[in-house]
Structure formats: structure tokens, C-alpha cells
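Field: COMPLEX_INPUT
Field: COMPONENT_COUNT = two
Field: RESIDUE_TOTAL = 563
Field: MODE = joint
Values follow.
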Amino acid sequence: MNNILVCVKAVPATTSVQVDGQYRLKREGASLQWNIADESALEAALSLKDKDGTVTVVTMGPPKLEAPLQDLLARGCDRVVLITDRLMAGADTRATAGALRAAAKRLGPADLILCGRRAIDGETGQVPGELASALGIPCVSNVEKLEWEKDRLLLHRRLETGVEVLSARGPLVVSVCEYAYSLRLPGILSMRRARGKTVERYSAADLGLTAEQCGLKGSLTKVTAMESKFPGLRNGPKETDPAKGIQALRAMLREVQP
Amino acid sequence: MSQEILVLCPFGLDAGLLSKAAELLPGRVRAFVPAREQAEAALYGANIIHTLNCGEIVDEAALADLLAEKLKLWGSSIVLAPATIRMRNLMPMLAWKLDAGLTADCTALEMAGSDLVQTRPAFGNSLMASIRSLSRIQMATVRPGLFRPAARPNPKAEIIPESCHIREQRLRHVAFQPFSQGKPLSQAGIIVAGGMGVGSKEGFRKLSVLAEKLGAGLAASRSAVDAGFAPYRCQVGMTGVTVCPRLYIAVGISGAVQHLAGMSGSEKIVAINSDPKAPIFGYADYGIVGDWETVIDQLLKEELS
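Field: COMPLEX_OUTPUT
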């Protein structure tokens, strides 16, 4: 038996982004997609789940995520939960982890909690660790392969200099690398099973969270300024004579080589 | 209240970060380093040095528990760590325990009164955000190798040996398989990067030989990774690693926005491309218009002789 909880985030599908007066992302207009590493985590969960196990998905975001969550049921997830509340807007990683902890507690014990290793919008990768700490369990980050070894999990973790293999006993949080697993398509069987299932919606009050614990108010970091800074044109000289080019490159290499 | 910066480097010292801390709050820097790096910590400006003497720590959560206890005694007001993979896992756990705000992967730090202003890129490098912590303890991870180490010898630094007793082994180390290819990209001073223009796995082998000769890291654009020319861990850009070496040599890379996001922070960028209209030239400090193989072969020949 294993119960797996997967935390996913919807991110803007474009590379051009806009922020509002409080430096929050304008998400209204942008079309959203599941963060790429989170899709990896979803597939890892679906392939780890055994016959009696369940995969529950939780996300925090606007009501329009109901349809993409419904789609995850058709791909084989057993239960999908949407935390949605105006109070949650502008949450930093801490406020997000707080909301996820409350949802995880309410959903009942999970043997394994999977997240993507970072979202392509915020790029902090902090929520998995904060969530683990909030639940009092360990967290292993940057994992590219998970497999069962009897009652333990073998985790292949990609570090800067190589791959570390760890053996872990749940419950724990694992963050999964992008492209490690590619999310399966909806299947006929799971589509049939998904029929009649609906997206469960939690508000801040449902999770026992006060306005002070949510969103911008519940955050411990504050963006105080933001400027567009991408990417500076350098327009350096172009050399068409390879011999001269190589000579210049050599000089630059000498400058930086120890 | 008196301020103090704690620089956490339990898995290896980031001398540049320590120097930066000493510049921000001279004389009030505490470092937590492996025992073997005690002398280096004193050289780069630490006033109090906690030396960690224990075997390999596998469970970062257990170390976070230990540090949270220690911090209650130390009372540091700012906690900094290099944004390595392991520290980016440990710091959030510690931040939660300390009720502290945490900013990830900063590229600039400055003091404004008692506030630490943390600057970090968001959305690739398209936006730079200035962030302040609202908590008593201010925490940030900082892009590794970003600041240049500056010696500030401190022969009178106080040395405090620390032991760690990690009781329960919820995690066990099984094996470590090192990557064959050279330096980790986040720490490389020089990076040789290839794109679709390199054309094949064989082409990348050539770049890999050059990278090794130069003591450089090997990187690739997303399309080159997708084509199977290089493994994913080499991918630089929005969905790969972000790097800031002193010299970035872009070989056969056209310069898609997503790639630029991952490398436009490099100190110097050289582009080699046969297409004079390739966008990468606009973002390079120096461009060589021509066949990449001619250039690389010539460089290899010079390196060998």
C-alpha cells in the first residue's frame, strides 16, 4: 500500500510576463500550464503507485485550474484538490508551504510527497524543503529516479558532481527533476474511472488558515522593487577572419585561466 | 540590536560569499565550515569559525534541526549560504524552523540600515527583483562562485569545534556515481557551450575534449540536449542551469531567449557561429563568424602543442 501526494503548480505558458503594482505576477490573462518538473513528479507518482495505492494531487491557484485538474484524473490520478482563495494571492514560498501543510494534514497521512524541484516562474525550489520541515519529515531534492526496494525507496539524486544514490524510508518529501519522467496521456481505463469524480475545493477557512497566515500577509519576504533587465545587448565586434578570431579568443582565455 | 552574519558552508566553503559577508558587516561574521577549511575561513574574513568534524552527512533535515538549535544560542541576524543543490535543500528547512523569510539564488546583496536587500533574477533573467525579509532573521542563498574571494586575514579568529550526532538514519547513503565530464557548471570559470550548429554527438565530443583541456565546464542549449547531443545536466537556460562564468564560449548556438536567460550573466561572452545574423552575436562581447570546427580544431591544436 502506498499513498502519494503530489504538489503541482500552474505557471504562465509564455516567457513574457507582467507584474502588477505589488510586484505580483499577473496571472489573469496568461494561459497556464503545469510546471514542467511537476509533470515529472506526477508521472513518478503514477509509476510508483501500486495496486492499492493512491495518487492525490494538490495545487494552489485560481478557479480556472479545475479543468486541467480534471484532466489529471483522466491520466490516472485518484484525487485532485484545488486550494483557491483570494486571500492566498501573492504568497511567498513560506505562505505556500503553510497552505500545503494544512492541506496535507487534512488529506490524511501520505507515505511520500512529491514536488517538482523548482517552478520555472519563481525558480526558488524552496517549497519542498519548507513543506517537509513544516511536517517534520526529511526532504531529498533534485531526484531524477525513484524506485521501490522492498519497503524502502531508492532515490537517485543529481548533485553538481555526480549522482548520489540514497535509500529512504517514508514519510518524506522528494523533489523531482524536470524531464526525469514524461507525463502519460489520458487512458481509456482511467478516463472511465475518472467519470463522476470532481475537483475538491478548499478555501483558506476550510484549511483553518486565517487571513494573516495566507498570501501576501502570510509571507516573510517582500518584493520592494523590480526592474526589467533582460538581456543586455553587448553588440561586440564580429570577426570574419578565423585566424584573427582565434588569436583574440586565445587572449581572452589567457585572461581568465588561472 | 547588534547585527551578525552567519555564513553556512557545511559541505564546503564559498570563499567569495564569506568575503562578501565580511564586506557587508566587517568584524561580525560567523562561519560554519568543514574542519579542513578552518584556515581558509580565517583568511577570507570570518571572526568566529565553527568547524564541523564528522563523517558524511546524508540527511540535510537532521543538519537543519541541529543548526536551528545552535542559532538560538548564536543569535545571528542574517544567515547566508551558497546556492548549491544541497544548501538549497537545507536552507528552506532551516528557514521554516526559524520563522524566517528566505530568498533563493541571489545575485547581489547590500545592507540598507539593518535590512539586507537581496537581489535576484526572476523569469530567467528577464526581471530583477529586490527583496527584503520581514522576519527577525533574514536568510538568503547566493549564487555560488558569484563573488570574488578577497583576502581579509583574521589570525585572531575564534575557533569552535562542533560535532554532530545525527541519531536516526531516515536516509542511508548507498552509492555515488561521479559525472565523467569535468567541472560542475555552477562553479566553472570557463564554459564551452554547444548548440544545434555543432550538429552531432561527435561534435560535442570535440567540445568536451577542449573543455577538459581548458579546465572548463561543458554546456549545451536545449535543442542540442533534445537532439541527444549532450546529457540534460549540461543544459543551460530557462529549463536548465543558470550560469555566470568569467568566460562563456557559445559554439553553434543561435541565441534563443530561453538560452540567453541562463547565461546572460556571464562576465564575457564569445559567440562562434557561421550565420552572421544569429541573434547570439548581439549578446556577445566578441563574435567569430565562421565554421565552428575550424576554430575549435585550431584551439585544440594549440592546446596540445
